[in-house]
Amino acid sequence: MEDLLSSYRKFAKMEGNPETINLNEFREYVKAEIPTYLESKDPHLLENTMASLDVDKDGELQYKEFFSFITQYIVASYNANNKVHRYSINGS
Ligand SMILES: [Ca+2]
Ligand SMILES: [Ca+2]
């Protein structure tokens, strides 16, 4: 949790408001921390993800909005890993 918080702060202060993450900062964060997220073929993935996270529609991600992304991402990875695990058990 400490690491998540310090990397949030690091990226939030790159541009504009040092307390919030804009689209450029979000892109830099994803590039640095979860590059596999960018392997999607959808060129608007980040924009769409950001729009769905930006609950108050102010164009920036406050820490609560940002951490809901991290939570969703962790849950999705966990589900994906569990599927792989189940398949490997079935396959043996
Ligand atoms: Ca910022
Ligand atoms: Ca917002």
Automatic annotation (TrEMBL):
<dbReference type="GO" id="GO:0048306">
    <property type="term" value="F:calcium-dependent protein binding"/>
</dbReference>
<dbReference type="InterPro" id="IPR002048">
    <property type="entry name" value="EF_hand_dom"/>
</dbReference>
<dbReference type="GO" id="GO:0005509">
    <property type="term" value="F:calcium ion binding"/>
</dbReference>
<dbReference type="InterPro" id="IPR011992">
    <property type="entry name" value="EF-hand-dom_pair"/>
</dbReference>
<dbReference type="InterPro" id="IPR013787">
    <property type="entry name" value="S100_Ca-bd_sub"/>
</dbReference>
<keyword id="KW-0106">Calcium</keyword>
<protein>
    <recommendedName>
        <fullName>EF-hand domain-containing protein</fullName>
    </recommendedName>
</protein>
<dbReference type="Pfam" id="PF01023">
    <property type="entry name" value="S_100"/>
</dbReference>
<feature type="domain" description="EF-hand">
    <location>
        <begin position="41"/>
        <end position="76"/>
    </location>
</feature>
<dbReference type="InterPro" id="IPR018247">
    <property type="entry name" value="EF_Hand_1_Ca_BS"/>
</dbReference>
<keyword id="KW-0479">Metal-binding</keyword>
